[in-house]
Amino acid sequence: MQLPPGPDSMLVMARGIGQGRRVALFTVLGMTVGAGMVQLPLLALGISSLVKASPLAFKLLQWAGAGYLIWLGLKLVLSSAVSSGPSQPEAAGPFAAAREGMIANLANPWPITFMVAFLPQFVDPAAGSVTLQLLLLGATQKLTGVFVLGTYAIGSGAIGTWLMQRPSFMLWQQRVAGCFVIGLGIRMAVTGGTSR
Question: What is the arithmetic mean of pLDDT over 174-178?
């Protein structure tokens, strides 16, 4: 679920390349810890299965996620267009990066759909509280997301650091990162962007 490149991993890589390792890591925390604080209670209470059962709610969430990714990509492209000279592009602050990562993950219907479809298979009602088991399974899934997406953040941050030492590449790398994020938003709108 987390290894193939999808909206979350591509956004993290675009952030790492365009704005550095620190911003990418805070984006990961928003996608995993921040989004998990919303998704895990919904999963445990069964509310998230309503989104899965309603095609209209699922489509609306998918389009909202696509629109948000396109907006983030446009911000990267347009901020690089107005930056002057070879100065380093202004990176998002840690809380802004975490907030944007959280919103991007919450607006993508696939993470919660995956949890609703996959995690209940491992719940044993005879073993105790179903709610507690779902919370533990969901927290484990989010924790693996920290490690997998964190690896993407560290790797792309290293590439971004290398590029930032070459001022002639800086403007173009931010534009390319923005175009990747816009492309992800379009992909999510058209195909649903089924992986992370």
Answer: 76
Dihedral sign from CA coordinates of 120, 124, 126, 131: negative
Query: pLDDT by residue (tens digit) across 30-51?
Result: 999 999 999 998 887 776 666 6
**The one-letter amino acid at 8:** D
DSSP letters for 95-126 = HHHHHHHHHHHHT-HHHHHHHHHHGGGG--GG
φ, ψ of residue 128 to 5 degrees: the values are: 130, -160
Q: Where are the domains of the chain?
A: 7-191
Sequence letter at residue 102 = M
Query: Between vectors from CA 144 to CA 93 and to CA 14, what angle results, nearest 5°?
Result: 40
Q: Which amino acid is at 163?
A: L
Burial class (CB in 10 A: 0-12, 13-18, 19+), 176: middle
Tell me the C-alpha distance between 125 and 11, whole Å. Answer: 37
pLDDT, tens digit, 9 for 90 and up, residues 85-110: 444 445 568 899 999 999 988 888 77
Q: What is the pTM of this model?
A: 0.71
User: Which amino acid belongs to residue 86?
Assistant: P
